[in-house]
Amino acid sequence: MKAVIFDMDGVIIDSESIHADMKIRTLTHFGIPCSMEDCVAYVGRSAKAFFTDFVHLATKPVSVQEMVDYKHKIYLEYIQDSNTVYPIDGILDLLYELHENNIPVALASSADRKVINAVLKKFGLSDCFKYILSGAELPASKPNPAIYALTAKALGLPPQDCVVIEDATAGIIAAKDAGTYCIAYDNPNSGPQDLSRADMIVDSINDISLNKILQLQN
């Protein structure tokens, strides 16, 4: 195993429930009823994919991009002002171990580039990743495998030499369809997710070590 590719929301920071809340607030702002249950199926997917399926219910003229922009605005305000959002327990130690052993790490997230940059800056992680890709910049994000296939290519590696760490069904499908190995973090705050296609499932990021990552190819 020559590189590790991280998802961000639900893996680097415990933010899936925050994203869901901001989606609900956005839909409410545009006169569309929505519940937390409506958001579960979209965990790991882009904001554009979510709002595309709801925009037709708006009570006033609005575009998908306007919804996306509004959601990003209130999410960024929350992240920048919040003192209750932290990196997930164990993630900093794992990043340190990988760097100490010269294992390249990348980030491939469905989040908008502005959101990714804000999160990484807040927690001092901006320089941790050799390559960062936002699914919002692709024609299709997770569960489409392009985001992980392109990240592996940018690292100069075939997908089978990379392991992805994910928390969501959509991301696991994307990783496996791209040809990478995948470790699923069973994050209780990400809602019910089908992790069955992952090569390994852990209950804590603390359960992931370089030794376990290397064992995936054996």
From TrEMBL:
Its cofactor is Mg(2+). One of its GO terms (molecular function) is metal ion binding. Keywords: Carbohydrate metabolism, Isomerase, Magnesium, Metal-binding. It comes from the Bacteria. The keyword Magnesium applies. The keyword rRNA-binding does not apply. InterPro entries: Beta-PGM-like (IPR051600), HAD-like_sf (IPR036412), HAD-SF_hydro_IA (IPR006439), HAD_2 (IPR041492), HAD_sf (IPR023214), PGP-like_dom2 (IPR023198). Belongs to the HAD-like hydrolase superfamily. CbbY/CbbZ/Gph/YieH family. This is Beta-phosphoglucomutase.
